[in-house]
Amino acid sequence: MPDSSSIIGPEIGAARGNEDIMSAVERGRFNTRGVVAGPDQVDMNKVNLLHPELWRSQKCFEYFQWLRDNSPIHYTEDSPEGPFWSITRFDDIVAVDKDHERFSSDSKYGGITVVDLNEGFKLPMFIAMDRPEHTKYRKAVQPVLDSESLKNFEHLIRKRTIETLDSLPIHEPFDWVDKVSVELTTMMLATLFDFPQEERRKLSRWSDVATGKYNKEICPGGEAQWQAELTECLMKFMTLWQERGNRDEPGHDLLSALAHNAATKNMTPQELLGNLILLIVGGNDSTRNTMTGSVYAWNKYPKEFEKVKADRSLVPNMAAEAIRWQTSLAYMRRTAVEDVEMHGKTIRKGDKVLMWYVSGNRDERAIERPNDFWIGRPNVRRHLSFGFGIHRCVGNRLAEMQMRILWEEILNRFNFIEVLEEPERMPNSFVRGYKSLNVILHPL
Ligand code: HEM
């Protein structure tokens, strides 16, 4: 059997500890491209599931199929990020995700990505906290993002969606990622924070900076630039924070919610920055890539989309199916805080555990015809894209609403959005995303 690393190129590199996930991926970007081997051609005990080529080529799906069938609780002893366990079946992922007593998200064990959180300039975020600390932040923001409160945003989000779609070039190729997905998610974030719309691109810039400290394309000035730009973000939000906190009547936005909640109004600047960045990053990449993925899916499964064109009441189903099919966040990591037995294997205290949502969402044991985009799918909202348990995505209703509005407005205008070539994908094992998607519009 050939050596796995020679078939899929050298491993990502020696990134460990103080590196973030993007930097690790980016440094792998220049590795050998070419034919990526299938799981039967390599030694699966040695294969590096984080390898960017597996993600760029989408070969990762074959690897997860193999793991679900042959080794559902799988140990990778040696990877650039150290050893880790992979959980690949739907039911096992749900079990680990719900077992937050034994599987921690806390940054003191390393947090929620395979690369341990930076030890230096710490950004405390409630996604990387356990109970009881996690509860106080989540409770403060949840009311702004529940279905009832979202009605306050629906009108504005629709207005901005309409303006964006109406400004697109007709019969002329353009990049859907830049002109629509990035634009709409950024506008939505500005709406959520009641942040000045004219400065909205700063939000996506700060989101990129926060996750791209070692990415030379994003932060050529390295850590110094990273700190400087995040400090600018903090200063801007501190001003807004004070202004919102001084208002007698809190607004409907996220900043007002945090500034008026007894448990969060006295946050330190570092806590404020960390949790703001979480909301910015959380609301940015994942929704953006689902918007792009849904247009790509239209081209792959045109017959399915004929159904939604004929019956608009299927739009919410289509949105939920796009969220499952895309699975914008491929995995979340936990750390075992005690020894745990699963399928006859022992996960040791301190081990990293990756719950591969992207695999669970394609598990035929739990989901019928999981590889197909199927708008009439029974229980279409029963998927893993938002996680499960106490950290289940707090923005899930918002993401569904944005997708629904976008598609209602798309169908009001276009007969088809034609994808001109295969998309350029991010070579990233955490965020499953698109760099660009060239399309041409065919109006009604
Ligand atoms: C948490 C996915 C949209 C904010 C999560 C988690 C996942 C996820 C998988 C679970 C993390 C864990 O278990 O450790 C997605 C996807 C989205 C999306 C696929 C879009 C399709 C949003 C939006 C926001 C948001 C629009 C809004 C601001 C958050 C926050 C958390 C979170 C704050 C942390 C929740 C906690 O720790 O209690 N998201 N998300 N997300 N998401 Fe989302």
From TrEMBL:
UniProt cross-references to CDD domains, sorted A to Z: CYP142-like
Pfam family, one: p450
Keyword field: Heme, Iron, Metal-binding, Monooxygenase, Oxidoreductase
Origin: domain of life: Bacteria
InterPro entries: Cyt_P450, Cyt_P450_B, Cyt_P450_CS, Cyt_P450_sf
Cross-referenced SUPFAM superfamilies: Cytochrome P450
Statement: the UniProt record of this protein carries the keyword Iron: yes
Family per record: Belongs to the cytochrome P450 family.
Name of this chain's protein: Cytochrome P450
